[in-house]
TrEMBL record:
Keyword set, alphabetical order: Carbohydrate metabolism, Glucose metabolism, Isomerase, Magnesium, Metal-binding, Phosphoprotein
Keyword Isomerase attributed: yes
SUPFAM superfamilies noted in UniProt: Phosphoglucomutase, C-terminal domain, Phosphoglucomutase, first 3 domains
Known function: Catalyzes the reversible isomerization of alpha-D-glucose 1-phosphate to alpha-D-glucose 6-phosphate. The mechanism proceeds via the intermediate compound alpha-D-glucose 1,6-bisphosphate. This enzyme participates in both the breakdown and synthesis of glucose.
Molecular function terms, GO-annotated: magnesium ion binding; phosphoglucomutase activity
An individual GO BP term: glucose metabolic process
UniProt-listed Enzyme Commission number(s): 5.4.2.2
Name assigned to this protein: phosphoglucomutase (alpha-D-glucose-1,6-bisphosphate-dependent)
The UniProt record lists the keyword Nucleus: no
Subunit architecture: Monomer.
Length: 582
């Protein structure tokens, strides 16, 4: 059929500033007239013409509520703006890492390659009619749009007067694989619905030794559990873990993607992944059933991960350090060596110690995966991670939850390859404790205060910045709270100069650095859709191997007390306890 292009008059809508993770709001905000359309048109207008006219775009997401409607709207707007073809994952499902892989790896039957993508996700936030929705744009390298583009998008949202849409284009059946062909004023326009998993699975098989992992999973001594929390990871879990690697179907938990994530909170941590945590023997009540050897969970869009051993939690900071320390031996993709490693500033310094010992390039960057992407595009970084359960490598330009799980399974398979018929397998806990014995342990915890009054949160941060002008005053407060905590030797706001493009990112978190290597970090997070989230990071380094086996919360209790008194958390926020502790 031939479609027509309509110009629809509109007016700017406040609050459409995309953060590092795109634009996130409640569904009720997104379904307002023109809200989504204004943002999509503002994005098209922010891109250079060759990235739109005649281009191939990917449009998919984590399947949360409103995604199917949003996909149809974006398809019609793409047609009207001169896009040549749109690729959609079957049922509108593509994990965020899979979108990155599709942009970088997929070639159409006519030789076409994608130049960008609209990803529909609010990541680890809940879904449903009264919950969260989100949209972000990824570039031709497969990574999130840089600040220069997101700033342009925001400026465009403040002046927009019209958007283009092909209103008479019929809705596409995104449940069926196939190609729909149309004609418009600028010529041919196609929509291809393709298998959500094939490209991603192919990429994973090129990185890892699936045969070695399969041997581990088929061992009677090794048991495994994967929880997709009803997010988009479910679209990949059966294909990879059951079909390719031979895991039992019963090892998959909550692997049917749902618009509301089954009414749960798709955030893979000890608070929200309750069913997995209980199954792994980390719940509040003892289970008579012997827990699996290995467990993992994903968030809504499958870019985050949580790694668990039997009755054992692996912190994300330790996880990336352990993957980096073992990658060359255990993962074929890295057999020729690592280019470098990087972590976000709030992440513990466990990776720093590995980098120093292995003589690797090391980078500390602000929170936001685009900073890692710059380093990777320049060939400076192979493995990176952040404490917020994000781990990844230069195979794509997003964090990748399933990649992290396969990395851990690869390490376990490598450590046990001569041991599958022996008395006892090397476990997750064994690997972590061996790592601590070599590199020391970074005791680490994060306190999240969610949906805090935005004004109160800003006041608290401003108070901390002002406090930093006097180390004497800081140390007086520290000693007033706990005399057994060492002195603060440096206090600053983290600032980053990108070694690739020279850009400077300021106000990236408030840091208090102690004489013994301990750290307190305070950040305001932009990942929620309402209010503000204050994140408090607490870290203490212990090199003495006889002291690396303490309970984390017990070891950190003095620093926690100092942090709460130093920041006047209760006075500013009215919160006597965090919403989530990880």
């Amino acid at each position: 059929m031939v479609f027509k292009v309509s110009k629809v008059s509109t007016t700017p809508i406040d609050g459409q500033k995309p953060g590092t993770s795109g634009l996130r709001k409640k569904v009720k905000v997104f379904i307002q007239p023109h809200y989504l359309q204004n943002f999509v048109q503002s994005t098209f207008n922010a891109l250079t013409p060759e990235k739109v006219r005649g281009a191939t775009l990917v449009v998919s997401g984590d399947g949360r509520y409103f995604s199917k409607d949003a996909i149809q709207i974006i398809i019609k707007m793409s047609a009207a703006n001169g896009v040549r073809r749109v690729w959609v994952g079957q049922n509108g499902l593509l994990s965020t890492p899979a979108v990155s892989a599709v942009i970088r790896e997929r070639v159409g039957v006519d030789g076409s390659k994608a130049t960008g993508a609209f990803i529909l996700t609010a990541s680890h936030n809940p879904g449903g009619p009264h919950e969260d929705f989100g949209i972000k744009y990824n570039m031709e390298n497969g990574g999130p749009a840089p600040e220069a583009i997101t700033d342009k998008i925001f400026e465009n949202t403040k002046t927009i007067t019209e958007y283009l849409i092909a209103e008479d284009l019929p809705n596409i059946d995104i449940s069926t694989i196939g190609v729909a062909n149309f004609s418009g004023p600028e010529g041919q326009f196609d929509v291809e619905v393709f298998d959500s998993a094939s490209d991603y699975v192919k990429l994973m098989k090129s990185i890892f030794d699936f045969e070695l992992i399969r041997k581990l999973l088929s061992s009677s001594k090794f048991t495994f559990c994967y929880d997709a929390l009803h997010g988009v990871a479910g679209a990949y879990a059966h294909r990879i873990f059951v079909e390719e690697l031979g895991a039992q179907e019963s090892s998959l938990l909550n692997c049917v993607p749902k618009e509301d994530f089954g009414g749960g909170h798709p955030d893979p941590n000890l608070t929200y992944a309750k069913e997995l945590v209980a199954r792994m023997g980390l719940g509040k009540s003892d289970s008579a059933v012997d827990p699996p050897e290995f467990g993992a969970a994903a968030d809504g869009d499958a870019d985050r991960n949580m790694i668990l051993g039997k009755r054992f939690f692996v912190t994300p900071s330790d996880s990336v350090a352990i993957i980096a320390a073992n990658a060359v031996n255990a993962i074929p993709y890295f057999s020729s060596g690592l280019k470098g490693v990087a972590r976000s500033m709030p992440t513990s310094a466990a990776l720093d110690v590995v980098a120093k010992n292995l003589n690797l390039k090391f980078f500390e960057v602000p929170t936001g995966w685009k900073f890692f992407g710059n380093l990777m595009d320049a060939g400076l970084c192979s493995i990176c991670g952040e404490e917020s359960f994000g781990t990844g490598s230069d195979h794509i330009r997003e964090k990748d939850g399933i990649w992290a799980v396969l990395a851990w399974l690869s390490i376990l398979a490598f450590k046990n390859k001569e041991n599958l018929n022996g008395d006892k397998l090397v476990t997750v806990e064994d690997i972590v404790r061996q790592h601590w014995a070599i590199y020391g342990r970074h005791y680490y915890t994060r306190y999240d205060y969610e949906n805090v009054d935005a004004g109160a949160a800003k006041d608290l941060m401003a108070y901390l910045v002002k406090l930093q002008s006097s180390l004497d005053e800081i140390n007086s407060s520290v000693k007033g709270a706990r005399s057994d905590v060492s002195n603060v030797v440096n206090a600053d706001e983290f600032e980053y100069k990108d070694p690739v493009d020279g850009s400077v990112s300021k106000h990236q978190g408030i840091r208090f650095l102690f004489e013994d290597g301990s750290r307190l970090v305070f950040r305001l997070s932009g990942t929620g859709s309402e209010g503000a989230t204050i994140r408090l990071y607490i870290e203490q380094y212990e090199k003495d191997s006889s002291k690396t086996g303490r309970d984390s919360q017990e070891a950190l209790a003095p620093l926690v007390e100092v942090a709460l008194k130093l920041s006047k958390m209760l006075e500013f926020t009215g919160r006597s306890a965090p919403t989530v502790i990880t």
